[in-house]
Amino acid sequence: MRTVRLHDTRSGELKELRPRDGRKVGIYACGPTVYGRIHVGNARPFVVFSQLARFLAHEGYEPVLVANITDINDKIYDAARPAGRRSDELAAEMTEAYIADTDRLGLGRPDHEPKATAMVDEIVALIGDLIEGGHAYVAEGDVYFRVRSLPEYGALSHRDVDQMDQGEGVEGAALKEDPLDFALWKARKEMEDTWWPAPWGDGRPGWHIECSAMAEATLGAPLEIHGGGNDLIFPHHENEAAQTLAARGRPLAQIWMHNGMLQMGEEKMAKSVGNIRGLAEVLDDVGRDTLLWFFCEGHYRQPLAFTDERLEQARGRVQRIRDAGRRLEPGASPEELAPHRDAYFDALADDFNTPRALAAMADWIREANRADAPVGDAHLREMLGVLGLENLLEAGEGAPAEVVELAERRASARASRDFAEADRLRAELRARGWEVRDGAMGQELVPIGP
Ligand SMILES: [Zn+2]
After folding, report:
1. Between vectors from CA 33 to CA 226 and to CA 31, what angle results, nearest 5°?
2. Cα(235) to centroid of ligand 1, in Å?
3. How far apart are CA 297 and CA 313, in angstroms?
């Protein structure tokens, strides 16, 4: 079992992973608010934390991955109303779409996917404890967190309290003791079609308290790793941390791990910016193998540019792994190659450095290719497994006869320099789910997508 170090946003340092009891590692990663289909930027934390859990399991830890589904939120009401739909129906539909879209990443499901609507009792109880402890107050059916009651507030996001804007705008402003306070519970409004009962009146929870309650209910506190995109550090994670610390006297998490944003040009990919690409659409275009590889090429903490060039590069690398796999044979790998395998896992233990790990994998392949006799594939299978890419070593299903025939017609069109016909046949092959590649060994047929 390697010692695993991860960058902790709160301390600003690499922190050693030290499970509370034995090997169990609780990971809570903030999941989507289900008001629309998710975009490829939303998939980054899903991929990072799923692969991290796989790596920890490989090392002998027992990870428990929780990714919540925020199905009570302002954004859902705001999206449902103009569409003339019930907000709970929209949320249920988008939850299904989220599950279907992320299933296509082929990384399995998180161990728990709690929904806010299924945890309202826990949420109400936690708010009750905060009121009782003097950290929250009721104002006309709303409940607000009293930020200045907690001296540690701001320790995660490293902001001065005077530079904090809860982003709640004018809503509730007149009811707050202090503009810094944020909503734990919002009283029932006429224009909102769902509400739940609470001792201080009907209404529904705020976003931040939902996560504190769901994290505590599934993993307890302090859980080992709390994750999410770095756009969530303030106010969402600061407020989650504050609520649990104030109510329980214990920190919510030992390590706060944040992934960088996917970039489109100079800006982060975000619905609010209007520069998004749907996850389903990207999977249709490039397939899950290429998309997962694309993510792994960037260190999780850094921003990652979403460009055609990088996707094309990832596609090429995936193809190289498949090619290398065909030259290997099943079975144990030679000991001489073990240092590259070890370097790969050491890189993942060092703040989950996937680009450095992939470089070690490339070294392993380079050396395996130099061997005179076929080399056993066990190391490579082990390395690919933690990324969910071991399928690259499976001998693909052969192309059906009519696809082979189309490919042969394309080859002869190219040979007679009829490029228009060759392109048309390539498009026809793509439509049937096959990509034709021209290499030194002639053309090759590769299935597209997952
Ligand atoms: Zn959250």
Report:
1. 25
2. 10
3. 10
Which DSSP string do the residues of 176-207 spell out, in sequence order?
A: -SSTT-EEEEEE--TT-S--B--TT-SEEE-H
The per-residue pLDDT string of the chain (450 residues; one tens digit each, 9 = 90 and over) reads: 899 999 999 999 999 999 999 999 999 999 999 999 999 999 999 999 999 999 999 999 999 999 999 999 999 999 999 999 999 999 999 999 999 999 999 999 999 999 999 999 999 999 999 999 999 999 999 999 999 999 999 999 998 877 889 999 888 999 999 999 999 999 999 999 999 999 999 999 999 999 999 999 999 999 999 999 999 999 999 999 999 999 999 999 999 999 999 999 888 888 888 888 999 999 988 999 999 999 999 999 999 999 999 999 999 999 999 999 989 999 999 999 999 999 999 999 999 999 999 999 999 999 999 999 899 999 999 999 999 999 999 866 567 778 888 888 898 888 888 989 998 998 888 888 888 876 544 577 777 765
CA of 256 to the centre of ligand 1 (A): 12
CA of 266 to the centre of ligand 1 (A): 26
Residues 6+ apart with CB under 8 A from 263: 269, 303, 304, 305, 306
At 142, which helix (H) or strand (E)? strand 142-145
How far is residue 169's CA from residue 160's CA, in Å, rounded to a whole number?
19
Strand, coil or helix: what is 443?
A: strand
Report the separation in Å between the CA atom of 29 and the middle of ligand 1, taken as the mean of its atom positions: 7
In angstroms, the Cα distances linking 253 to 67, 137, 211, 264, 281 are: 15, 25, 12, 31, 35
Ligand 1 centroid – CA 237 distance (Å): 7
Residue pair 122/214 in contact by the 8 Å Cβ criterion = yes
